[in-house]
What we know:
C-N_Hydrolase; hydrolase activity, acting on carbon-nitrogen (but not peptide) bonds, in linear amides; about 25% helix; six-stranded mixed sheet; acyltransferase activity
Amino acid sequence: MSLDTVALVQFDPTLGPADDGTTARLCDRIRETAAEADPDLIVFPELATTGYSIFDQIDACAEPIPGPTTRAIGEAAAAVESHVLVGMAVRDERGVRNSAVWIDRRGAVRARYNKRNPWGDERDVFVPGDDILVLECEGRTLGIQICYDLNFPAQSAAFARDAVDAIINISAWSVPMAGDWDRLLPARALENGAYVFGCNRAGSEGALSFYGHTTAYEPDGSIAKRLDDQSGTLVSQITHETLHDERERNPMRRDRRADQPTTNRVSIGSGGGKH
């Protein structure tokens, strides 16, 4: 079995605890997506189980793992025999995390990534993660990140050192930052020679509008498929041939130096200027 087909669900959750009906909707989307596309992996956005603006109700929204939401999504994943990656607020021994949770084809939680780079008010409620996550799954090497992580090249460089085949970014990316989304995702594809899948939110929460535009990028940074700003599902493919051809075209994986550069910092004063 190989992880070839990826379905990105541009989802619009209800704001509040997952048991307000959002969990049922997520499970319905898993079943519907499986019936339509038979994907190997179904991806949902950042904080898809509760909505994004949960800072004033974080205690009611955060869940442990295992918990009722991961059990329900696990049952849906097992029923359709697809992996699922979903964003949710997770409570652990260090506090509440903004997490991406990987549930396998049998419905078991297999991995979790905690967002390393909180944005704005997220710092008040979420404990940032320390490690990056690279998954080996069915012949693919995948780097997982969440939203604002996309802005930090050091994480992309770490993925490059681990030779990932694809980067999956789950997001709640807003309209005012739309240009960054459109520029950073293809840059990460190019510098990794890897597919990049940006799975974003749809809809709005009060004055906060989400950009949508969930996009699949080829390893050369070109757009494979893209959604608009409405709820929907994008289905894309990972192929060995495309990865091989791009890495032959652009050999930076072979040419990348393993050593870390030191800085030669030179200060040039204003003496000896024009007369």
